[in-house]
Amino acid sequence: MKQNIGIVGLGLIGASLAMAIKQNTEHNVYGLDINEQTMHRALEEGSIDGVLEDYGALDLLIVALFPQAAVELILDKVEQMKPGSIVMDICGVKKSVVTQVAQVCKSHKVEFIGGHPMAGRERWGYENATATLFNGASMILTPIFTDSWALERVQQLCNAVGFGRIVFTDPESHDKMIGYTSQLAHILSSAYIKNPLCMNYKGYTGGSFQDLTRVARLNPVMWSELFLLNRQNLLDDLDILIASLQEYRHAIEENDAQRLTQLLADGSRIKEALNEE
Amino acid sequence: MKQNIGIVGLGLIGASLAMAIKQNTEHNVYGLDINEQTMHRALEEGSIDGVLEDYGALDLLIVALFPQAAVELILDKVEQMKPGSIVMDICGVKKSVVTQVAQVCKSHKVEFIGGHPMAGRERWGYENATATLFNGASMILTPIFTDSWALERVQQLCNAVGFGRIVFTDPESHDKMIGYTSQLAHILSSAYIKNPLCMNYKGYTGGSFQDLTRVARLNPVMWSELFLLNRQNLLDDLDILIASLQEYRHAIEENDAQRLTQLLADGSRIKEALNEE
Fold first, then answer.
1. Which residue, B45, B47, B230, B240, has fewest beta-carbon neighbours within 10 Å?
2. A176: which residues sit within 8 A by CB, 6+ positions away?
3. Are residues A59 and A156 in the same domain?
4. B contacts of A237 (beta carbons < 8 Å)
């Protein structure tokens, strides 16, 4: 079935989705972005078929905005959506977004599904979007009150645009996992680079410095909003990490080779176990 | 000039050096390893020309052992070395090693130079060695009391085996830089992975988790020794890092979006500046 798909927000993720849908499916894509130049480029380059004006004509609305803006847009537009249409957000936190919109959508006979594409780059905006961004990546879906036909249709679209794996979970579990695997990693990378010695790293690294600092380059406004919407999980993860670092620090301060070796061996074994899975 | 090169310790670095020297130069390579099976394989595969027995016949001795073992071997064998020969260690800490051996070597008319190849893998030992390990990598040399002819000869060898960059510095500066760019990165990676959530990371990462944990897999005994020989620098770096993490934690706890955004923007700017160099 040829669908009318609307995408609000043509940044890195929204525009990449538009391009990937245009490239891999027959669906019509209507886009909207606050930036006029982006709209101009998206239309000119054929990333979208037209400007999103009529929400009532959509089979699927993808909201690719920052969390609070996404919630506001969904609450504002859901009345215009037709019964039996689908709304999906792609925010990096799910509980806060999903709890604010899922039930409202359902009450308008609109299916809602929260999604989080595990794909990103250190550069963002329309100009860094690409139709291949999701190739082989994981898509996390957090259905709640979602009918199976809607879930199936979203899954088909995810497969079509290149995702290599679809993971289902609930919003709370998503936020807990992502707080650790992604958000904490970004904080760590950002905190690690704040040592004046970093300016001279070249020639003094075999690659670990680059690996540890790759994601220090990020969109500060977006990540700040994501962190604060996942506050308690992040605080818990930060406490675990800082306590862990203190253990190594203590062993080093005490010149305790046996303890230090043990701490390192434990970490090495964990990594090895993950690799072997 | 065809040289007789001895290599003690045929682990990842020693054996890779042996292979790279055999592959790229005409020098003779004599090796020694405590592990009989390793010796057998190294001889059989032609990674070395023979067993190192006569230290007096060497033009260059490369000591590829852990730091304390390297110091002991050098102090034990330097009397057998001929005047005008060169000794090089390749340990990951330099001050402790260099201060224990440089002057002793000089008093025997043997040139000493400390080196640290910035190349490694998450797997070690002879079985993971490869002649291409150093291709394009950086080699740090910390000459002290070293004659220029000796330095030149070591540089020629480094270039021949594939190093892409040679950096000169003093042992103290080396340890300070490496404490941050490499050792702290390894501790951080090891500490970060110690969160029970790590077991479920698959499907919940776009790559940052893998980047942050790559070097958690390490040789615990070797790294423990390296850390304790660079104790004060590491403690300083750990304090800077933990204080930095506490700043992010505080902004999150206080729900201070402005401060959090600022912290992230600062880190992002630093990373961008490093990339642009």
1. B45
2. A233, B197
3. yes
4. 195, 197
For residues A159 and A258, state if they share a domain: no
pLDDT bracket for residue B277 (50, 70, 90): low
Domain that includes residue A14, residue range: 4-169
Going by the DSSP 8-state scheme, the letter that residue A90 receives in this structure is -
pLDDT higher than 90, residue B185:
yes
CA distance B71 to A49: 70
Tens of pLDDT, residue by residue over A25-83, are 999 999 999 999 999 999 999 999 999 999 999 999 999 999 999 999 999 999 999 99
Q: Mean pLDDT for chain A? A: 96
State the pLDDT at residue A275: 83
Q: Does B188 lie in the same domain as B164?
A: no
What span, in angstroms and rounded, lies between the C-alpha atoms of B112 and B98?
Answer: 8
Q: What is the mean pLDDT of residues A164-172?
A: 96
Q: Which tokens hold the place of A246?
A: 């203190």
Domain boundary residue, one of A137, A152, A169: A169
Q: Determine which of B138, B169, B183, B197 to mutate to test the interface with A (most A C-beta atoms within 10 Å).
A: B197
Reported ipTM exceeds the 0.95 cut? no
The closest CB to that of A177, out of B200, B208, B249, belongs to: B200
Give yes or no: residues A10 and A75 share one domain: yes
Which residue out of A201, A249, A256 would a mutagenesis test of the B interface target, given it has the greatest number of B Cβ atoms within 10 Å?
A249
Q: How many CB pairs under 8 A join A and B?
A: 288
Question: Does the predicted TM-score (pTM) go above 0.90?
Answer: yes
The shortest C-alpha distance from B253 to chain A (Å) reads: 7
- Using one digit for the tens of pLDDT, what is the confidence trace for A178-232? 999 999 999 999 999 999 999 999 889 888 999 999 999 999 999 999 999 999 9
Is A231 within 8 Å of B247 when comparing Cβ atoms? no
8 A C-beta contact, residue B125 and residue B10: no
Torsion angle, alpha carbons of B192, B197, B202, B203, to 10 = -110
A266: domain CATH number is 1.10.3660.10
Instruction: Kindly indicate the confidence band of residue A121, based on its pLDDT and cuts at 50, 70 and 90.
Output: confident
Write the single-letter amino acid at B271: K
Specify the pLDDT at position A277: 61
Looking at B143, B169, B195, which one is the last position of a domain?
B169
Of B194, B220, B240, the CB nearest to A244: B194
Q: Does pLDDT of B121 surpass 80?
A: no
Is A144 found in the same domain as A182? no
Identify the CATH number of the domain in which residue B22 sits: 3.40.50.720
Give the tokens for residue B145. 């009391």
Shared domain for A157 and A53, answered yes or no, is yes
CB-CB: which of B235, B244, B253 is closest to A191? B244
State the total domains in chain B. 2
Joined tokens for residue A222? 């977006």
Separation of alpha carbons B193 and B74, rounded Å: 38
> Half-sphere exposure (CA, 13 Å, Cβ side) for A198?
29
Which residues face B32 on adjacent strands?
B8
- Residue at token pair 């599904």: A113
